[in-house]
Structures are given as structure tokens and as C-alpha cells.
């Protein structure tokens, strides 16, 4: 096996008189940091395994045919058209040599003066290989698209089966994880069942389709206020979602979901939104990794025991008095940490002292279905139609790009007025020849 030094450098990276900052990951934290460092006296090399940024909060709408994948994904190169000091490369980062300050990627190696890791997190199956094999996670646009295809193909299949008993496992959908993702997915799938599928498949009886949301803890949306948690549960009830609290999934073989101390459920569609684990790369010392897999950083987001490596967003664990176990893994933390680090890196150029990070919680929200959402702001919490409008507005404003905002606005207006999302297309991936896979398959499928 080649060592990092034996690999060739990534070609065509421009020479620069400035210090080089390499950012790994163009998620919420990575692009915020790169944008804040635009036109600064640093050379910034941004690496991501995809050539687009993914807006994860709206992935469930891709999975449920309400939005197209391109509405929630933004081309990274377009973001940096006018910023000469920022170079983007689509690359998978694998390993780091901290002593020599070199990164190993699938394209070759890359030197850095300062390294910022913002690789986010991936799905946590808690070591259960069967669940990992058979359940569908939803952390990326391609996984959301897979879920859309899976759900639609289920009904195209069910409509050809004579027996109701045979159809049942194909029609049922089970979602595991009662956080915002699970709640939003369950609500959206129930709305499809209640309003859309019966029109598309009049030969199927949708009373036979169960939408079940399973949560191991005692309530849904555990980080939200009691009022919001109760309201979300009652909204799901109105939509006909069966909510099972205090329920542990023990195993899944692709057909039967085994539950601890409860009756098993038959489904070929288990959507897994039950946990995440931080991404990492080879070359990090074990004492720099917390028990939960997050990389431990100080109040400046500096990786412990290092002076030129920083970690921001979901990948890091940073303790504050109010957050003794680290901050919640949400977009606002990632964005705020990246902004603070950008300010500090600029202060460094002026030899000024750095400012420690302090998280400002702006609130949390989740939507359950049309006109049903819950919003907790720092001083007030509200639910219902107004909360739903606030949710729509906040998400519309947060998405990158005017075209994407317009696309989403039009898709939502159409969906909510006509209750007929128009994206129920089953576009199946074509077989990719082995020698073309590296460039054409989702990188995670190659690992
Ligand atoms: C379905 C879903 C819904 C969510 N809803 C909400 C919500 O409503 N509100 C909220 O605040 N938060 C929400 N979150 C959480 C939020 O999306 C994350 O907290 C946020 O994305 C973290 O930002 P990040 O920059 O740390 O990581 P990410 O945004 O995950 O970005 C990480 C980037 O690193 C890249 N990467 C990873 N490994 C490598 C590698 N080895 N080489 C190259 N590139 C790599 C990835 O491709 C990715 O682009 C949701 C998450 C999911 C999955």
C-alpha cells in the first residue's frame, strides 16, 4: 500500500503567497467558513465528496415526492464563481498525516497550513448489521431519492398482487426515530396515503397501509417543549400515524421488524432515522475522539493537542457550561461555529486575540403536515397554522440560491393547493459498469 508521501499531489491546485486553509466537507459549517473567508488573505481549498451542498432539513420532502433533488442541493462551484482565493475539488478525504501536515484523498495528497474538518455525521445503526443491510437511512440527497423510489415501487408492485395479505408488508411503512426527521417523514407519508395514493392506485385499499413511527424514548421530539411534543403526537394521530413510544427495535430481516416485548410488524420498508455518528478519518489519535465518536475540541474549535487542526459542526464535541455533553448536532451550531472560526482566523492575520465560541440557541421547529407544525423559540412556543407558516418561511429563507427558493416556493404552493405532489416518478438508476463506478456511483456505495 502506498504511504501518503508516495502519492502524487492533487494536480492543478494554484500556488499562492497566502497560508493555505484546507476545509474538508462542504456542509453547513464548511460552506459558511469558506464564504466568510472569501477574499481574505488565505488560500482556501474546499473538499467534498459531492460537488453539491445538501440541505438536509428538507430531504424528507425529496423522499416523499414533494421536492425535486435539485431543489435541496446546490452546486458548490457556483458558490465560488467570484472568489479567486477559494478552490473547490470533489475529493474523498481518507487520511491525515498530522506531523507532515498532509491529507490523503482519492485524487492524491494535499498539504495544508491549517486544516478544518467539517465532515458532519452519518447514520448510526448501533452495530446492528441486519438493520444496516435492510433499513433505509436518510442522510443524503441520494438516500432520500432511494426512499422515494422504494416507496413508489412498492405500490407499483402491490397493485399487481391479488391477496390483501401479500400486499400488507409491501404497503406498510415503519419509521424508526422520533426526532424531527422521523416525525416529518411519518407525517408526509401519512399525507400521501390519505390524499394521493388512493387516487393513483384506486385498486388498492389504503386502509390496509399502516404508517408506524417507533421511538425508544418516552416522547417524540425530545429536545422540544412539553407542549410541542404533545401537539406533534396529536397531529400525527390526526393523520392516522401509529406512534409507538418506549419501543425498542431489536432486529430486522427485510420483512419482519422484531420489537422488544411487543408484537413484530411486517414491512419491506423500514426507514431508519434513529441516530447519527460523527464521521472521521484515519490518523486521528484515540484520545482526541469522544465516546460518541465526535472529535474533542476546545472553546476555539481547535482539536485537542493540536495547534493547526480545527473541527466544526456535527463532527466535533465542544463543551459549554450549558452543554456539558456537547452541543446539539443541528445546523445552527455548525453555522455559528464556522462563523466564529472565520472571525478568529481573520483576527490571527492581525495578531489579535481569539474569541471563544458561545452558542446562541435560536429555537427549534418541526412540521407534521399541512398547517401543523410546532415551534419553540427561546421565549415562546407555539403550534398550529401560524407555526406552520413560520416553518415554511424559515426553511425557504435558509435554502441556498434564488432559483432553489423559487423552485421550492412553487412546489409547495402547488402541493398545498392541489394536494398532489407531481414528482411521483420512479426513475431507476441505470446499471453502472464496474470501470465507471468511481465517478458515477454515490461514493458511500463504493466504500
Ligand atoms: C434528514 C435530516 C434532517 C435534518 N433537519 C434539521 C433541521 O430541521 N434543523 C437543523 O438545525 N438541523 C437539521 N439536521 C441536522 C443538520 O443537517 C446538521 O446538523 C448539519 O448538516 C451539520 O452541518 P455540518 O457542516 O457539520 O455537516 P454536513 O452538513 O453533514 O456536511 C458534511 C459534509 O462533509 C462531506 N464529507 C463527509 N465525509 C467526507 C470525506 N471523507 N471526504 C470529503 N467530504 C466528506 C459530506 O459530503 C458533507 O457535504 C437534519 C439532518 C438530517 C440528516
From TrEMBL:
<keyword id="KW-0274">FAD</keyword>
<keyword id="KW-0472">Membrane</keyword>
<dbReference type="Pfam" id="PF07992">
    <property type="entry name" value="Pyr_redox_2"/>
</dbReference>
<dbReference type="Pfam" id="PF22366">
    <property type="entry name" value="NDH2_C"/>
</dbReference>
<keyword id="KW-1133">Transmembrane helix</keyword>
<comment type="similarity">
    <text>Belongs to the NADH dehydrogenase family.</text>
</comment>
<dbReference type="GO" id="GO:0050136">
    <property type="term" value="F:NADH dehydrogenase (quinone) (non-electrogenic) activity"/>
</dbReference>
<keyword id="KW-0812">Transmembrane</keyword>
<keyword id="KW-0520">NAD</keyword>
<dbReference type="InterPro" id="IPR023753">
    <property type="entry name" value="FAD/NAD-binding_dom"/>
</dbReference>
<dbReference type="InterPro" id="IPR036188">
    <property type="entry name" value="FAD/NAD-bd_sf"/>
</dbReference>
<dbReference type="InterPro" id="IPR054585">
    <property type="entry name" value="NDH2-like_C"/>
</dbReference>
<feature type="transmembrane region" description="Helical">
    <location>
        <begin position="379"/>
        <end position="400"/>
    </location>
</feature>
<feature type="domain" description="FAD/NAD(P)-binding">
    <location>
        <begin position="20"/>
        <end position="338"/>
    </location>
</feature>
<keyword id="KW-0809">Transit peptide</keyword>
<dbReference type="InterPro" id="IPR045024">
    <property type="entry name" value="NDH-2"/>
</dbReference>
<feature type="domain" description="External alternative NADH-ubiquinone oxidoreductase-like C-terminal">
    <location>
        <begin position="362"/>
        <end position="417"/>
    </location>
</feature>
<keyword id="KW-0285">Flavoprotein</keyword>
<protein>
    <recommendedName>
        <fullName>NADH:ubiquinone reductase (non-electrogenic)</fullName>
        <ecNumber>1.6.5.9</ecNumber>
    </recommendedName>
</protein>
<keyword id="KW-0560">Oxidoreductase</keyword>
Amino acid at each position: 500500500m502506498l504511504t501518503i508521501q508516495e502519492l502524487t499531489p492533487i494536480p492543478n491546485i494554484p500556488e499562492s503567497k497566502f497560508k493555505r486553509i484546507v476545509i474538508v466537507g462542504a456542509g453547513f459549517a464548511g460552506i459558511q467558513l469558506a464564504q466568510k473567508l472569501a477574499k481574505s488573505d488565505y488560500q482556501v481549498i474546499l473538499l467534498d465528496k459531492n460537488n453539491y451542498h445538501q440541505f438536509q432539513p428538507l430531504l424528507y420532502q425529496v423522499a416523499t415526492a414533494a421536492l425535486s433533488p435539485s431543489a435541496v442541493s446546490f452546486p458548490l462551484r457556483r458558490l465560488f464563481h467570484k472568489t479567486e482565493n477559494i478552490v473547490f475539488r470533489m475529493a474523498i478525504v481518507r487520511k491525515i498525516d498530522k506531523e507532515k501536515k498532509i491529507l490523503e484523498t482519492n485524487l492524491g495528497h494535499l498539504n495544508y497550513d491549517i486544516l478544518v474538518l467539517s465532515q458532519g455525521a452519518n447514520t448510526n445503526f448501533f452495530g446492528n448489521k441486519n438493520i444496516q443491510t435492510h433499513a433505509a437511512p436518510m442522510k443524503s440527497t441520494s438516500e432520500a431519492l432511494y426512499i422515494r423510489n422504494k416507496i413508489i415501487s412498492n405500490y407499483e408492485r402491490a397493485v399487481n398482487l391479488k391477496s390483501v395479505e401479500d400486499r400488507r408488508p409491501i404497503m406498510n411503512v415503519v419509521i424508526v426515530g422520533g426526532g424531527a426527521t422521523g416525525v416529518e417523514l411519518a407525517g408526509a407519508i401519512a399525507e400521501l396515503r390519505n390524499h394521493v395514493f388512493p387516487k393513483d392506485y384506486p385498486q388498492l385499499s389504503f386502509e390496509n397501509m399502516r404508517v408506524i413511527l417507533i421511538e425508544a424514548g418516552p416522547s417524540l421530539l425530545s429536545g422540544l417543549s412539553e407542549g410541542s411534543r404533545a401537539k406533534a403526537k396529536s397531529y400525527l394521530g390526526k393523520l392516522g400515524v401509529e406512534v409507538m413510544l418506549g419501543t425498542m427495535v431489536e432486529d430486522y430481516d427485510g420483512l419482519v421488524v422484531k420489537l422488544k416485548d411487543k408484537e413484530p410488524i411486517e414491512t419491506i420498508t423500514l426507514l431508519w432515522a434513529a441516530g447519527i455518528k460523527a464521521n472521521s478519518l484515519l490518523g486521528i489519535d484515540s484520545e482526541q475522539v469522544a465516546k460518541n465518536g465526535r472529535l474533542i475540541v476546545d472553546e476555539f474549535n481547535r482539536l485537542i493537542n493540536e495547534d493547526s487542526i480545527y473541527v466544526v459542526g456535527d463532527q466535533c464535541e465542544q463543551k459549554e457550561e450549558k452543554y456539558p455533553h456537547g452541543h446539539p448536532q443541528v445546523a445552527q451550531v455548525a453555522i455559528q461555529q464556522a462563523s466564529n472560526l472565520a472571525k478568529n482566523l481573520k483576527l490571527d492575520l492581525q495578531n489579535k486575540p481569539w474569541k471563544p465560541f458561545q452558542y446562541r440557541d435560536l429555537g427549534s421547529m418541526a412540521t407534521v403536515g399541512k398547517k401543523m407544525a410546532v415551534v419553540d423559540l427561546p421565549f415562546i412556543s407555539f403550534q398550529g397554522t401560524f407555526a406552520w407558516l413560520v416553518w415554511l418561511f424559515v426553511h425557504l429563507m435558509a435554502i441556498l440560491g434564488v432559483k432553489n427558493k423559487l423552485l421550492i416556493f412553487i412546489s409547495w404552493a402547488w402541493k398545498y393547493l392541489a394536494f398532489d405532489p407531481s414528482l411521483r416518478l420512479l426513475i431507476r438508476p441505470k446499471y453502472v459498469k464496474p470501470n465507471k463506478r468511481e465517478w458515477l456511483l454515490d461514493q458511500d456505495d463504493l466504500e
